[in-house]
DNA sequence: CTCGGATTGTTGAGCTTTCAACCGCACCGT
DNA sequence: ACGGTGCGGTTGAAAGCTCAACAATCCGAG
């Protein structure tokens, strides 16, 4: 089974449209947050995750795992967020290898300030562009793709 | 109309799933290309665009505009692609400001070598995960979002 | 013809991400 | 207790992207 199943004309068109959308949306949201709130989208995600956690605190590994971020990336990011005073690190008492990341009041305030603009952008550019049926379909499509993505990063097909 | 239209529980769930998918897919494809063909996805896109152009040649601005890339990004990228010998620059005879980017034979060969793996990844992770109806829906959804994205980067609503 | 503004493309600095190497600590078997 | 294995997290270098500034050229108005 060495044969490549190339994309048909129609599939190519859909693929191009899809990839253009993902790039366009992420760029749009990233720019909006950077411009209005001086943070990249990935940092916004970190602040959100922390704000929803009990005690606004998460282990580094949980924070990394919650979203698909690598440990290294998160470590750098949290270092930067510490510099601007939005996050603080605390050592874990029960496991001295571990680290907690804690959202500071300043960080929470920054998130509160950033949220309206971001949510508005998401609504305008994503939900307002779609019919209710399309929104539903998008949800199901996303879950279907996610299932296929997570099933293995190992090498072999999951079916 | 200063009120923020927050996302409902359901909308949040869909949004999260969608953003996770886009991040997951782009990371997956980027890794695959980097691992198997030593190029990031953005470079792959540049090679594809050039390979489809007449004479495998495009003006820098056309190349940038074809995909949503900034001039700066493209300039850096082409510089790098020139270093590895996949692209060559030529000055434009009719407009001395302009530059052509030309795909070399080595670049075309690299693209031919990279394509099967990439297309296979796209098929496995995207198309195989969806039903035919979902594929159709994804195409329409993408076009709808694109229309909303392009209508203005200026500032004001397009409706 | 000439000047001013717009266009094309490049450059360098700063920031984020990735990759590989690494340290310290926990856990487990002996 | 001891030693190995592996986890949790950090670090530094290299690579890519963004942003702002810039150089060179083109174009149009006077």
Brief descriptors of the model:
homodimer, 159 residues, mainly alpha, Arc Repressor Mutant, subunit A, three-stranded antiparallel sheet, 6 helices, 3 strands, 64% helix, DNA-binding
Question: Could you explain how this protein is built, in words?
Answer:
Two copies of one chain form a homodimer. Chain A is mostly helical and 159 residues long. Helix content of chain A is 64%, strand content 8%. Chain A has helices spanning 9-37, 41-52, 60-66, 71-83, 105-125, 132-150, and strands at 57-59, 87-91, 99-103. In chain A, helix 1 runs antiparallel to helix 5 (105-125). Chain A is globular, with a radius of gyration of 19 Å. Mean pLDDT of chain A is 93; it is low at 153-159.
Q: How many angstroms does the end-to-end distance of chain A come to? A: 15 Å
Largest sheet of chain A: 3 strands, antiparallel
Task: Return the string of H and E elements of chain A.
Answer: HHEHHEEHH
Helix content of chain A: 55-70%
Topology:
The structure is a homodimer of 159-residue chains.
Chain A: H1 9-37, H2 41-52, E1 57-59, H3 60-66, H4 71-83, E2 87-91, E3 99-103, H5 105-125, H6 132-150
Antiparallel strand pairs in A: 1-3, 2-3
Helix pairs in contact in A: 1-5, 2-5, 3-4
Chain A binds a DNA duplex (30 and 30 nucleotides) through helix 3 and helix 4.
